[in-house]
Amino acid sequence: MVGRVHGPDLNLLTTLNVLLAEGSVARAAQRLGLSPSAMSRTLARLREVMGDPLLVRAGRGLVPTPRALDLRERVDVLVQDAAAVLRPAKTDYLYFVADGTGGHLFARTLAEQEANKAKWFALRRARGEM
Description:
Helix content: 55-70%
Number of strands: 4
Number of domains: 2
CATH topology of the largest domain: Arc Repressor Mutant, subunit A
Largest sheet: 2 strands, antiparallel
CATH architecture of the largest domain: Orthogonal Bundle
Radius of gyration: 24 Å
Strand order of the largest sheet: 1-2
Low-confidence stretches: none
Distance between the termini: 58 Å
Number of helices: 5
Structural class: alpha+beta
């Protein structure tokens, strides 16, 4: 049985990023496809976890606290970096390799393909084929 990993809910970073960008619970909820009440509950969780109100009422809107302002850029970079890490590798070529067991289909990334081309080019040149 695989044990549950305990630690912070990293999904909160995405929510915090959108809340800080929008400055509005309703707009952040709409952007993330949540109801305003669900976004309000998530903001309450963020406030509890972070020990800071993050966004406070000012007139009809919300303004970020000094801590939220300090975190805004850092949170945005973290979310962008996480999205980049989780993005699938760009694959440009599919290959089928028969190996006596029915074969395997696999993808090669563009970088792998370019590295392979460079090796073949060097081999052909060394053999005097070019």
